[in-house]
User: What shape does this take?
Amino acid sequence: MANHKSAKKRIRSDEKKHSRNSAYISGVRTAVKKFKQAAQTTETSKEDIDKLFKGAQAMLSKASTKGMMHKNTVSRKTSRLSSLLSKFLQGNVAVDKKPKKKKKAAASSKKKKKS
Assistant: This one.
C-alpha cells in the first residue's frame, strides 16, 4: 500500500481511469461484434450495415486518440471491418474464417498415477 498522499490519490485516479477505459473498450467490442453479425446475414439492409460500420469505426478511432488502444491495432481492425463491408455490399455474405475451438475431453487431460 502506498504511504504518500499523492501516491494514494494516484491509485484512486488510476482505478477510475481503468474502469472507464475498460467499459469503453467493452462497448467497442460490442459494436464490432454487432457489425460482424449483421454482415453475416442477408436480411440486413445497406443503410443498417452502414450505420453499424460508421459507429464501430468511430468508436475504434476514439479509442485510439484517447490512448485506450494502439493506433496500429485500431487500423488493422478498421481495415478488416471495411473489407467485410465491401464484401457485403458486393452481395457476398461474409463468413467468419476463425475455426471454433474444440474442447478437450476431461479424461485425456488427467494423468495416471504409477503404483
In short: The chain has a mean pLDDT of 87. The CA atoms of residues 5 and 26 lie 32 Å apart.
